[in-house]
Amino acid sequence: MDAHQASDPTTTTILMFPWLGYGHLSAYLELSKALSSRKNFLIYFCSTPVNLDSIKPKLIPSPSIQFVELHLPSSPEFPPHLHTTNALPLHLTPALHQAFAAAAPLFETILKTLSPHLLIYDCFQSWAPRLASSLNIPAINFNTSGTSLISYAFHSVHRPGSKFPISDFVLHNHWNSKYNSTLPEHAHCVKEAFFECLNTSRDVILINSFKEVEGEYMDYLSLLLKKKVIPVGPLVYEPNEKDEEDEDYSRIKNWLDKKEALSTVLASLGSESYASEEEKEEIVKGLVESGANFIWVERINQKEDEEQQIKRRELLEKGGERAMVVKGWAPQGKILKHGSIGGFVSHCGWNSVLESTVSGVPIIGVPLFGDQPFNAGVVEEAGIGVEAKRDPDGKIQRQEVAKLIKEVVVEKSREEIRMRVREMSEIVKRRGDEKIEELLTQISRLSNIS
């Protein structure tokens, strides 16, 4: 910690405290960068050691951003390398939430030691703003998901049985059955914590979004919460030019350089894929049948048996020279910016939606889990992409995936989508760091520093 900088009375100190998921960390890191680029800000970024190690490559060393380690309780069944959602087996998710909450006393010590002017916290640790309040430290919630699901969730609580007034978007029965089913105890506790995190935020809520896409949802959420909703997005990682020398991207770039402009699709289902083998198979078949060039990002799944891997490899081989497979992690931001990319087959995780929008690439949505069906609905409403609709039984249809890729990328019969997403891209690029001006005003008021 830079003691001189922290003790400077003109310096505003902010403690960033994201949830342990990669998408959350990434958005919090980008907000930290935006704030630290302004004069007289010192950002403390608090997470588990394994998470901090994963994001260090995305940060040029700066005295204005300092990492603070939070050590969760460990055990032989739950060692420190699992203190992240990245590659975490699903059955250990409740254990991760429990360990995170059990670290509250350690976090209280961090708050007392650093004594920041402001805590910016995420959506699952409702104990964090309570601790901050007990120490007279103002705390505001920064939510890294889209606004549509949040406003829909609050509507269902505050105005049950009434029509959602913002959108005619209708969930497929496949999703309705999941959202309306009785939640297990762990999921119910997480939901309650989520609502409490929003309700206890001091006067405002920060959202990683922008008004051109979700303005009406923000206004409605503000009405329900009786708090100001401040958009600070899109906050996405912008690759550095010198990073392009990395070996993984060089191989992908060499392949893409041989393809025609806008002729290729990136297909990636997120850093924490919830796709079943059947769903992956249908998407791959849709890619092959579309006739487009494509990059398929294959997440490494330790539980997947060899027979399933061989079957999918055989399917991918049918793509011939049109197909490239990237195993494990892929430099998604760089790939989306390449001139050969004409579409993005995405699970519609919110970070991926924002990355695609910033890059000006149309989205072909195949939502799989959580907020993704709502995000896909927003993508269609905003005219920046299309959703591959499921069949009446809730199954992904290869014919639908292939048809939409053909329309957007091969036949280019949906150019209004490309024009719209490029328009959005230009808007956010012109705005630049102006997106955090309203936040800066709030920070000044809350921290009593002008």
TrEMBL record:
Presence of keyword Nuclease: no
Acyltransferase among keywords: no
GO molecular function: UDP-glycosyltransferase activity
CDD domains: GT1_Gtf-like (cd03784)
Keyword set, alphabetical order: Transferase
Short name of one Pfam family: Glyco_transf_N
Regions that span the bilayer: none
Glycosyltransferase N-terminal domain span: 13-235
Pathway in which the depicted protein is active: Secondary metabolite biosynthesis; terpenoid biosynthesis
Biological process, per Gene Ontology: carbohydrate derivative metabolic process
Family label: Belongs to the UDP-glycosyltransferase family.
Identification of the protein by name: Beta-D-glucosyl crocetin beta-1,6-glucosyltransferase-like
Lineage of producing organism: Eukaryota, Viridiplantae, Streptophyta, Embryophyta, Tracheophyta
